[in-house]
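Subject: sequence -> structure tokens, single chain

Hey, anyone have a minute? Need the predicted structure for the following. Not urgent.
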Amino acid sequence: MKHFVTMKSNSIGMLATAIAIFSVSLASCSQPMDSPDDGRKWLAGDHHVHTEFSGGYDTKLDPPAFIATGDGTYPLSLHVENAQKFGLKWLVTTDHGGPLHSIVNRDQAYPKLVETRAAFPNMLLFYGMEFDTPQADHSTLIIPKSNEEAQTLFDIESRFSKLDPWPEDKAGDTEEKMIAALEYMKALPEPPIVIKNHPSRTAPKLGAWGQDTPKEMRSWNDTAPGVMIGFEGAPGHQAASLQEDSSQSTKGVRGAYHYTKTRGGYDPAVAIVGGLWDSLLSEGRRWWMTATSDSHTHYTEGNIDFWPGEYSKTYVKAHEDYKDVIDQLRNGAIFTVTGDLITELDVTAREVKSSWLSFKKLAKPASIGGTLNLTGKGADVTVTIRFRDPLSNNANGANPQVKRVDLIIGEITGKAADPTTASSPTSKVVERFDERTWSQDDDYFTITYTLKDIKSNSYIRVRGTNTDELEPEEDAKGEDPWHDLWFYSNPIFIEAKHK
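Reply:
Had a minute. Here:
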């Protein structure tokens, strides 16, 4: 757009008027319009749920005989019934494997899933499993809905699950086997999604690693970035610290993280600013995080679990259909929350004109999971955070309030020279917000903040809490998880212009 102003050189009044008009016109051009509403909504879900087909085995027989309800307890229909009660729109069934479990999944679990879909048409019910990851701990495996989904899972489980072969094949429990599995999955017509479950649960202490390591995660993501998309940020088993009744003498630890404790219910890989998650993001990896129930049996019946959606939720901004939920999970349009502290979270990054004399078209705004490609060198970026703190009680009968929101930024410094690294020195909380710095409209809250002079490729992410903790503290044995609630967004990436 070009502006032309004609005036006589001696007409100061006309000059002032022209400059004023010019400035107003330019200001209107410098405010980018939001992307049009595409109809997507925040849909709550859970990708880690166990049914009666997470079983046990009679090892006196050859091959071992599968015994239903040996680990998971409930039929899938009961999980779905409760998931709907607690507001979920999508769910993934993820039963444990074992000797020849691929046959159990195909011949017993899958027909039940089809039956349950028919009984609950308003639930998007995905087929999957808790994959026995070669040379690592468990992972969620989500199969896109299709006419071939049963055969797809059977082929993956029977070929690559480290526990499926009988007789046992310990030689197949290798990193090479996992790489082969990911190569196979990414070549499928409809590739599945793999999410690393409870990444720090087997770590003997903070800074050490157990069955899951940063090096493995980088290798998996390098092999199949569209398949291996991230890890659980808030693991399941959050009711482990609650007593079933007053007769119990001890309480457990949240997430069953007995060695490296969770912090605010989140894995330390996520909860510690500058930790493993930030290390992965600082390489520019599209590595997302989620929250799950890992529900086997409810804590009131002697176990350590909540129902799906009762405490933890993973929200995906998607159309209410199978394909778009899978696509948006893959795209990282995700935030997580515990205790229904919030029910919506939109984060938007917008480029700001660096000079009033510039008419260059601004970059399209970016939202959670997206990328803002700056058009100006050293541009400012305005971040808008809008969340809904609902005027209703959660499953615990309380209505917790958000006390603080943090904006976190980190530089993207390129691929790590050492693949074992789990730290990002540039990642930090750039600003903290509370009721003094946000505006409120009913149960919606809005925060606006401008990042100045962005010259380096970066990412931003957001978290919030109902606590007074500046950083989430290590969770104590027996603490009440309902009093320690957090939400986390996935990142927005910012590509800086260098010339």
